[in-house]
Amino acid sequence: MDLHTITESGPVHWAEPWRPGDAWLGGGTYLFSEPQPHLRRLRDLSGAGWPPLTVRPEGLEIAATCTVAQLSRFVLPGGWAVNQQLVTQCCRSFLASFKIWNMATVGGNLCNALPAGPMISLTAALDGVCLLRALDGGERRLPVAELVTGAGQNALGEGELLRSVTLPDAALRGRTAFRRASLHRHGRSAALLIGRLDPVDGSLTLTVTASTVRPVLLWFPLPPGAGELRRALGSAVPDGSWFDDIHGLPDWRRHMTLRLAEEIRRELQDREVRDREDQERSAPCG
């Protein structure tokens, strides 16, 4: 898509003030996918020089300019490897060509705040925290679940950008279960749920995306029963909060969310029981 209203584009000069019609340019897969008549200048972040992925003691930092391809190829080290499959599943949920994979950025997917954004699903489910930066150099941190405020809406201020998102060590060590539903085999996500079981305290976190207008996180100190889970979902996502578009009606999205949530609950609960039995069998006899 040619953006015929653009009069200026180039590397970021941080001292320049923000002007009406400005936009940050990451991979550009969204900006160049449809008309943007309100834009006049693109401020290109591709030359910012941010390392795509950085392993730190506190967790994994993913730069906003990290591409889906770079994330999908990254091998999680040590105790984080338990979630290698989850990263792959979320990357594949783009259902995009290799061209998109090599250009689309994690930050762009988060900032676009579309309900079906799989990077939102991944980072919200792993307790991701965003580092936001203003043009004057001021910084603030915000959980991914609070960055996305609605369908296509985010909490960024004027001229503010997403610098990176950090996935904490504790969340990366949790055992996870992934479920996704779509009207078509290669269609956009209509419901994408991720459950995470904490191996230390046994708590369970369920993240609901794609079927809702913004990420919904439910936390249980212990894995809930089927009835408790269903009631919690009904309370967290009241009528009118289910997303409605050509990729799925609200009632169907609600039905699939409840069904997938129960599947996740059973999978993680069964896995916990098996792990406990394995530990008991391997324990030395007294």
TrEMBL record:
<dbReference type="InterPro" id="IPR036318">
    <property type="entry name" value="FAD-bd_PCMH-like_sf"/>
</dbReference>
<dbReference type="InterPro" id="IPR051312">
    <property type="entry name" value="Diverse_Substr_Oxidored"/>
</dbReference>
<dbReference type="Pfam" id="PF00941">
    <property type="entry name" value="FAD_binding_5"/>
</dbReference>
<dbReference type="InterPro" id="IPR002346">
    <property type="entry name" value="Mopterin_DH_FAD-bd"/>
</dbReference>
<dbReference type="InterPro" id="IPR016166">
    <property type="entry name" value="FAD-bd_PCMH"/>
</dbReference>
<feature type="domain" description="FAD-binding PCMH-type">
    <location>
        <begin position="1"/>
        <end position="172"/>
    </location>
</feature>
<dbReference type="InterPro" id="IPR016169">
    <property type="entry name" value="FAD-bd_PCMH_sub2"/>
</dbReference>
<protein>
    <submittedName>
        <fullName>Xanthine dehydrogenase family protein subunit M</fullName>
    </submittedName>
</protein>
